[in-house]
Specification:
three-stranded antiparallel sheet; 14 helices; 12 strands; single chain; globular; Aspartate Aminotransferase, domain 2; 2 domains; about 15% strand; seven-stranded mixed sheet; alpha/beta; Aspartate Aminotransferase, domain 1; binds pyridoxal-5'-phosphate
């Protein structure tokens, strides 16, 4: 077995899923705010497009993907971010963004090089670290601070570290905190990456789940040695379809494409056809944002009533909340679990998550309202236990 796998802690969400499944088997009503996989139905026109595209004869898809999908992505990107991408040379469809994020360092890290650090913030989506480890890079997590709005501050990192760095991952809007970045921030980080010849990887799978100004893309700052990762999972409620894309610097895209055929990650043609239709439509995305806006309002009110401190959510469907005084995030999560409420303890997302928990606005609006009542009960017993 691969040594890395033996040393690795279980995937953070595994622990949560196991506990939840046990409760479910015992017949407990579960309000699952754990995994970020909302249950709103995929828009009917997307499902129809996929159904109609299932062919009589099915053959291997190419890793380069269908030209009409790349064209639809390019048109969407230009209308959304005012950045024109060449569909032939600057876009690769992916099988969701997770595989593309994981595989990226396998292509761009040279194990024998002095320049093999990969910087990412903590707390973070765990795949940046995992991909780095398997590629033989040096994971370099940087703690993100509440007082910095959870922005990764490259300007505070030692020059010597930056000189050894090959890749920087950023992810705004951010999982797990919901933090967003401005265009100025992206321009600054782009500038530092250029100064130190670092590849800037921007995981942008939450840019479409916003409640105020639409968040910017790193490609608005520039495209030299910069790539962005997008997904239909959150934007269009298509987690199960596995569809996204990587876009940016032509030379990186070319190299990445060359190696991706070894990974077997070509997206099925009928999924690509559904994806093409999804990128062409904004109405269903606006409808999804409206649903998350309602759920967000329920929890903003609840957290305020309960005196829980949280980062204001301008985008994503997450709340990043400080745990009540005197209890660890894990103990708090397990206390809530007794009531059927599943949240993710902050430390599941790395060292920087200590003292926080995350909720993903997954249950329906009705269930969110119910959950808040149950949660209040859980807080009462927590208070009684403390008094
Ligand atoms: C920050 C972040 N990046 C990437 C992904 C992967 O999304 P997908 O592979 O479904 O596109 C997720 C999923 O939760 C995520 O939270």
């Amino acid at each position: 077995m691969n040594r890395l796998l033996k040393e690795m802690k279980p995937y953070p969400m595994d622990e949560l899923v196991k506990a939840r499944e046990k409760l479910k088997r015992e017949g407990k009503k579960i309000y699952d705010f754990g995994t970020g996989d909302p249950k709103e139905p995929t828009a009917p026109f997307i499902r129809e497009a996929v159904k109609n595209a299932i062919p009589e004869v099915s053959q291997y898809p190419t890793v380069k993907g269908r030209p009409d999908l790349r064209k639809a992505i390019s048109e969407w990107f230009e209308s959304r971010f005012k950045v024109k991408l060449n569909p032939e040379t600057e876009i690769i469809p992916s099988a969701g963004s997770k595989e593309a994020i994981f595989h990226f360092p396998l292509v761009f890290i040279e194990e024998d090089s002095e320049k093999k650090r990969v910087i990412y913030g903590t707390p973070a989506y765990p795949v940046y670290e995992r991909g780095t480890l398997f590629a033989g890079g040096i994971p370099t997590p940087i703690t993100l601070k509440y007082e910095d709005g959870f922005l990764l501050r490259l300007d505070r990192i030692d020059r010597s570290i930056l000189e050894e760095t090959r890749i920087v991952w950023i992810n705004y809007p951010h999982n797990p905190t919901g933090a967003t970045a401005t265009k100025t921030y992206l321009e600054d980080i782009y500038g530092i990456c250029r100064e130190y010849d670092i590849i800037l990887c921007s995981d942008e799978c939450y840019t479409e789940i916003y409640f105020e100004e639409p968040p910017p893309s790193a490609l608005e700052a520039g495209r030299k040695k910069t790539v962005v990762f997008h997904s239909l999972s959150k934007r269009s409620g298509m987690t199960g379809y596995r569809s996204g894309f990587v876009a940016g610097d032509e030379s990186l895209i070319k190299e990445y494409l060359r190696f991706r055929s070894s990974f077997g990650v070509g997206s099925p043609e009928f999924i690509q056809i559904g994806a093409r239709e999804a990128w062409k439509d904004e109405k269903h995305v606006e409808e999804r944002r409206e649903i998350f806006r309602k759920k967000k309002a329920i929890f903003e009110k609840f957290f305020k009533e309960e005196g829980l401190e949280f980062l204001e959510v301008k985008a994503t469907f997450y709340f990043w909340v400080k745990v009540p005084e005197g209890i660890s995030s894990k103990d708090y999560a397990f206390h809530l679990l007794k009531y059927g409420i599943v949240v993710s303890p902050g430390d599941f997302f790395g060292k920087g998550g200590k003292g926080f928990f995350r909720i993903a606005l997954v249950p329906s609006v009705r269930e969110c309202k119910e959950a808040v009542k149950v949660w209040k009960e859980a807080h009462k017993t927590l208070k009684r236990r403390r008094d």
